[in-house]
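An instance follows:
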Amino acid sequence: MNYKAAKKHLLKDKKLKPIITEIGLPDLEPTGDIFYSLTRSIIAQQISSAAAKSVQKRFEELLDFDLSPTRILDTEIDDLRSAGLSRSKAQYVHNVAEAFQVNKWTDEQLNQLSNEELTTELVSIKGVGEWTAQMILIFSLGRADIWPIGDLVVRQNYQRVFELDLDLHMRDIKAHMSTFAAKWSPYRSYAALLMWHIKHCNYKL
């Protein structure tokens, strides 16, 4: 239901319409499993996708594919590092596992929180920032109105779509993104998916 409404809404935008018409509008496909997604996101921070895939594989093998908070907390930091995690990432993964174990969080409970409430809970964990929380909201929970202006690909393709000066100050770019995209609400997650899709399709603007 959201998809049809989102597409109809975003097609009203003269900048987005030709892009959606040519390459389509991706749909939200929530994966659930917030804990797994958080640990995977931490592992992937600041490394290439190929490196992240390799480290994730070794991480899962190290844990015998038991990616539960208990199993992770029972694994020493140095052992996690042997899978390719930096010391800080290993600690952050432990922090996430501890938060889920102490709070007894489940996907169902977290999904009942508003975007703001869930973001507050997640960023209270050392190692989890706003961008990571937004990725959870979009990809794990399928929330329809998240606009991650801090995401590099979203920001770069937004600049291309709206032909913003590449030398424009970051503050001004983010201000433009916040102000202009307000009219895309309540479907800004779909606009973000489109920005990522532009790169995936190598769409020529």
The mean pLDDT is 94.
